[in-house]
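Exercise 7. Given the encoded structure of a 702-residue chain, write a plausible sequence.
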């Protein structure tokens, strides 16, 4: 029997040839397509082909061969563009961890292109939701009209030989942004390109990034993702994208849809353009869980292919999942084939898509063994020895939802880590009026208490004041409480521990004094961030005064609340941030990647002295004084022949600092958002009057 397949190049044979077990996924060659998929516990797997729209199933083929745990077959005459999915046969015994159901079409885990969207309805579940036993029941309804399907993609040229910026660790300035939200309201981006990969690479956007001086874009998830059923019911969406479905597929919703241009091609062109502008691209990746959620979630891909292998099921009750992610399930990276999927995905994004590194969401989950988190787990060892991945940028979010979830400072050499202690220390000093000078000093000098071990440098600490998760910088100084009513959870979601300060008025204000306080605090926080040892991370839009009106958990707000409003951008603040970054690059008041005091090169004679405003060294009692709001930092630098002073004043009133002998020139004073030529030209001898809520950087002249 011959089946006509309109998107596969003509008539196709009635049966598959044996094919090969490697590589996994759908691999075209001039004569056809090889299909290979892992399942350790399946009894049979079918390949289903569809018309070009994915609406009509055309044929089912049984994969004829099994090599180890890989099922495979070769379809002569098939071509790129063919739409397909899998159906897996095997036991449906949820109590034992098995959830096979051939009535459910499954997305290929190695799909690079997809067709169609998830439509939330009962058929996407592997069980009958109307049955008293819920997930223990078995659904006989076909889900294929309601789920995304894979499309055979042509081979991509290798990107490993393309020239990349390769920014040194000590020079990195991270910039976290959302592909869609960054350009949706940008008037200088063509309307048809707003919110897309191509829009992010447009001239106006690239110009802003270059003028700002950031080096490395950290993109919120661009893997194909779907929204949860509960959000769909509220007419909301998973805007941030931390709900992955396809690990090798660029999210189609961020593609412009230009005819003949696939999301893959558009993404590659974006990366190439950003590289040419000197900007690196790091992806936020979510390998801790998938969009299939808990035992009551949908059956879309991995659950139906081999639930017991792909996910971490509870040993005492495999019907349920280990939930280290807090999202219902946990991917099982202790299984070699699941680890292979993750590594193959990472290699694909580096080798074929051209990216420069990854930020791993809830990263301790990736290193969890039966004994808890292990920094020598198979995942970390595999990356360290991999010829493609060993040299890329690796950034961990060092916490997850396990009882021992906080693992700051425990990741391997070469990894950077988001430092929440830095965030809380900077906020605590500037916004809570509790002093905390000792904590600020620790964070300014690279958080040695967490990172000065095992050969790691200060750059391992990713310092941030805000991130996508939480208040924007403008909201951090405008709201004391979260205002998340728009999320539909009765304002119960989002953190209550914000360490924020509304300067006396909750939300918007027309009071000039309140507005000035807020402007000063923003500039002080930004200056602190850029003058600290470690790797600074700026959240996109903070330099423009972006607000989310007090929403500190806008994960489901794909609308103007989350999109950057470029028409109301604070260009003076953007200019101030650009000057901070330029000063960091030119002056680096605290050496960005060496610990203090110098251990390896005493002849460098570079030392840090912490001073009270009267010029005396800080004593033990001074450090523990809770109402101390002022701190001086004197950095002696014999190599440069010029000392540097960093002065901090978190109080509302000006404080006079006595300076070490010599002449001093003001490089920046955060009390003003624009440089003052008179202040810069004036030589200060003996002392400097530092305004309230201000950071100043001064250079000594001998």
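Solution.
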């Amino acid at each position: 029997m011959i089946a006509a397949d309109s998107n596969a190049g003509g008539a196709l044979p009635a049966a598959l040839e044996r094919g090969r077990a490697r590589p996994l996924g759908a691999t075209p060659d001039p004569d056809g397509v090889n299909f290979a998929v892992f399942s350790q516990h399946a009894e049979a797997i079918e390949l289903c082909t569809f018309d070009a729209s994915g609406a009509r199933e055309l044929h089912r083929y049984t994969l004829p061969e099994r090599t180890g745990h890989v099922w495979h077959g070769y379809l002569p005459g098939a071509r790129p563009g063919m739409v397909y999915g899998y159906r897996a046969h095997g036991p449906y015994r949820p109590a034992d961890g098995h959830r096979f159901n051939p009535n459910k079409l499954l997305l290929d885990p190695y799909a690079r292109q997809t067709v169609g969207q998830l439509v939330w309805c009962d058929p996407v579940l592997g069980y009958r939701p109307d049955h008293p036993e819920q997930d223990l029941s078995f659904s006989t309804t076909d889900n294929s009209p309601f789920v995304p399907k894979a499309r055979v993609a042509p081979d991509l040229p290798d990107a490993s030989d393309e020239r990349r910026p390769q920014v040194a660790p000590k020079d990195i300035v991270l910039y976290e942004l959302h592909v869609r939200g960054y350009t949706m309201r940008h008037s200088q981006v063509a309307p048809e390109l707003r919110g897309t990969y191509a829009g992010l690479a447009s001239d106006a956007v690239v110009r802003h990034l270059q003028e700002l001086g950031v080096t490395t874009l950290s993109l919120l998830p661009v893997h194909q993702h779907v929204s949860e059923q509960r959000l769909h019911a509220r007419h909301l969406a998973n805007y941030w994208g931390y709900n992955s479905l396809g690990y090798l597929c660029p999210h189609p919703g961020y593609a412009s849809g230009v005819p003949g241009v696939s999301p893959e091609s558009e993404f590659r062109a974006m990366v190439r353009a950003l590289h040419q502008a000197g900007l690196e691209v790091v992806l936020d990746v979510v390998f801790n869980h998938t969009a299939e959620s808990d035992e009551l979630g949908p059956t879309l891909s991995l659950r139906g292919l081999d639930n017991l292998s792909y996910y971490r099921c509870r040993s005492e009750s495999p019907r349920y999942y280990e939930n280290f992610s807090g999202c219902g399930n946990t991917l099982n990276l202790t299984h070699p084939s699941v680890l292979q999927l993750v590594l193959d995905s990472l290699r694909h994004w580096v080798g074929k898509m051209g990216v420069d590194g990854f930020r791993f969401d809830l990263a301790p989950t990736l290193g969890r063994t039966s004994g808890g988190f292990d920094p020598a787990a198979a995942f970390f060892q595999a990356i360290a020895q991999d010829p493609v991945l060993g040299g890329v940028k690796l950034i961990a979010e060092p916490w997850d939802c396990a009882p021992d979830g906080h693992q700051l400072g425990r990741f391997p050499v070469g990894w950077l880590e988001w430092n929440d202690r830095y965030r809380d220390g900077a906020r605590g000093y500037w916004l809570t009026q509790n002093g905390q000078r000792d904590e600020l000093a620790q964070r300014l000098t690279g958080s040695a208490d967490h990172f000065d071990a095992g050969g790691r440098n200060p750059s391992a600490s990713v310092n941030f004041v805000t991130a996508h998760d939480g208040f924007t910088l403008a909201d951090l100084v405008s709201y004391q409480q979260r205002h998340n009513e728009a999320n539909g959870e009765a304002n119960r979601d989002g953190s209550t521990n914000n360490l924020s300060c509304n300067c006396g008025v909750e939300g918007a204000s027309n009071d000039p004094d309140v507005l000035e306080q807020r402007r000063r605090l923003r500039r002080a926080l930004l200056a602190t961030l850029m003058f600290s040892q470690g790797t600074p991370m700026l959240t996109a839009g903070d330099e423009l005064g972006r607000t989310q009106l007090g929403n500190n958990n806008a994960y489901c707000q794909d609308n103007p609340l989350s999109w950057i409003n470029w028409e109301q951008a604070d260009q003076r603040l953007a200019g101030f941030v650009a000057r901070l970054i330029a000063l960091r690059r030119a002056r680096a008041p605290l050496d960005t990647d060496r610990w203090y005091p110098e251990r390896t090169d005493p002849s460098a004679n570079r030392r840090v002295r912490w001073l009270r405003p009267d010029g005396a060294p800080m004593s033990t009692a001074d450090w523990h004084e809770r109402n101390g709001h002022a701190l001086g930092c004197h950095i002696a630098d014999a190599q440069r022949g010029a000392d540097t002073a960093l002065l901090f004043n978190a109080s509302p009133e000006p404080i006079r600092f006595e300076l070490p002998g010599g002449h001093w020139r003001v490089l920046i004073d955060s009390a003003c958002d624009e440089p003052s030529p008179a202040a810069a030209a004036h030589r200060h001898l003996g002392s400097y009057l530092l305004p309230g809520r201000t950071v100043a950087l001064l250079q000594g002249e001998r």
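Remark. The chain has three domains: 3-151, 170-287+345-587, 602-701. Students should compare their own answers with the one above.
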